[in-house]
Amino acid sequence: MKRIIIVSGIIIALLVGCQAGKQPTPENWDMFGFNEMHQRYIDGSEITSNLKLKWKTTTGAAGESSPIIRNDGKETLVYFGSFGRVLHAINIESGNIKWLFETEDIIKSAAIDPKSKRLIAPVEPGVLNCIDVDTGKSIWAVAINTTLTAPTIFENSVYVGCRNKYVYCFDIDSGAELWRYKTDASVNSCVSVFGERVYFGSNDSNLYCLDKDSGELIWKFKTEGAIVSTPAIKDNKIYFGSYDKHFYCIDAEKGKLIWKYMTGAEIQSSAGLSPKYAIIPANDGYLYCLSQQTGEEKWVFDTGLWQPINNSPLITNSLVFFGATDGFVYCVDLKTGEKLWNYKTNDRIWSSAAGFGKYVVIGSNDGSLYCFEPDETIQE
After folding, report:
1. Residues of the chain by 3-state class (helix, strand, coil), percent to 5
2. What is the pLDDT of residues 10-53, one digit of tens each?
3. With the CA atoms of 21, 35, 275 and 48 taken in that order, what torsion angle do they form, in degrees rounded to the nearest 10?
4. Nearest Cα to 35, choosing from 172, 187, 169, 232?
C-alpha cells in the first residue's frame, strides 16, 4: 500500500510498513506454541511446499524438545534441548553452534522473554533455569523437583505446569515464586495467557481459568478425559483437545461450550489456529481441519499409521507442517489437506516444528535437528 503526500508541489511516495522489494522482519518463535496464546501460526509467505535440507545438527540424543527461534537484530538463533542433557544455540543461517548449556538431565522445550535476553528452560527432574541468551550462562535456577511443562512467558511472569498437580508463576527477573495453584491431578498442559487470565488443562479432566496475577480460580470446564494438550486462544475462544476424544471450543470469558467435535481417538497433542481453521493432531494418526466458527470438518489427513501424532503443527498462510511416528516431516495444503511434500528422518518425531522467515526447523528422535529452506530449483 502506498500513501501519497504533497509537499510544496512535490509528490513524495512513502511506502508504509516496509521498503519496496524488502521483506518485513519475521516474527520470533519465542515459545512452544509461538506466542503466549499458543496459536502456532505465522504468515510464512517465504516458506514454500518444496523444501530442501539446509543443515542438520546432531544433538547427541533423542528428545521431545521443540525448537524456538529468535532474531536479536544481529543474528537469528535456534534454541533446542535434548535427552543429551544439552541446550544448543544454533545459527539458523549456517547451522553453527554459538553456545551450549550443559545440564544434569533431560532438557525440554524452552521459552524466551520477548523483552529481555532471558531464556527459561525446564530440566528433568524439575529445575527451572533462567539463562542469558547471548552467553548461555545461568542467571537463576529454581528446583521444583517434579516433571515440568514447557514454560510460557508473558510480561514479567513465567508460568509452568507440573506433574505434582500444581501450576506455578515465577518472577522472570529473580525467579521468586509469585503464586501456585493446585489441581486434582498432574498438569501436562502448558499455560496459555489471554488478557488478564491464564488457561491450562489438567489430568483431572478440567480446563482451568485463573487470574494471571493472583492465581485465583475464575472458572473450570469439565470434560470426560485428561487434558494434556495446550489450549490455543483466538477471538475470545479457547480451543483444546481431551482424552475423551473430543476437540472443544469454549468461550474464554465464561467457560461455556460453543461446540465440540469427536475424533477417532484421544487427543494429546496441541492444536494450531490459522485465521479460519483449527488444525488438530490426534492419537488415531489423523490430522483434522475444522472450522473455528462452527466445528465443521473441512478435511482429514491420514498418515497411514494407527499411532499418535506426538507433536503440534506449524501453520502458515497456506501450509501445515508436522511430524509423525514414521519419521517423516509432512507438508499439507491448508485449504485441502493434500500432501505436498515430505522428508524422511531416521526415527520418530515428537518435536514440534517452528518457522522463521523462509525456514522450517524440527527435531527428530534420531538425535538431530533439521533446518529446511525453499528449493529454488523446483517451480511452485
Report:
1. 0, 45, 55
2. 333 333 343 444 455 688 999 999 999 999 999 988 999 999 99
3. 50
4. 232
Question: How large is the C-alpha radius of gyration of the chain?
Answer: 20
d(CA 105, CA 143): 13
pTM for this prediction = 0.91
Cell numbers placing 128: 527451572
pLDDT tens readout for residues 314-359: 999 999 999 999 999 999 999 999 999 999 999 999 999 999 999 9
Helix (H, G, I), strand (E, B) or coil at 118: strand
DSSP per-residue letters across 56-77:
EEE-SS------EEEE-SS-EE
Cell matching residue 11: 509528490
Residue (of 70, 223, 229, 220) closest to 161 by Cα position: 229
pLDDT recorded at residue 2: 31
**Which residue is listed with cell 551450549?**
100
* Grid coordinates of 260: 465440540
For the beta sheet containing 127-132, the strands, ordered from the edge strand earlier in sequence to the opposite edge, are 111-112, 118-123, 127-132, 138-143
Q: What are phi and psi of 268, to 5 degrees?
A: -115, -25
How do residues 217-271 score in pLDDT, each as one tens digit? 999 999 999 999 999 999 999 999 999 999 999 999 999 999 999 999 999 999 9
Q: What DSSP assignment string belongs to 83-114?
A: TTSEEEEEETTT--EEEEEE-SS-B---EE-T
Q: Which of 265, 280, 339 is nearest to 311 (CA)?
A: 280
Contact 177, 185 (CB under 8 A): no
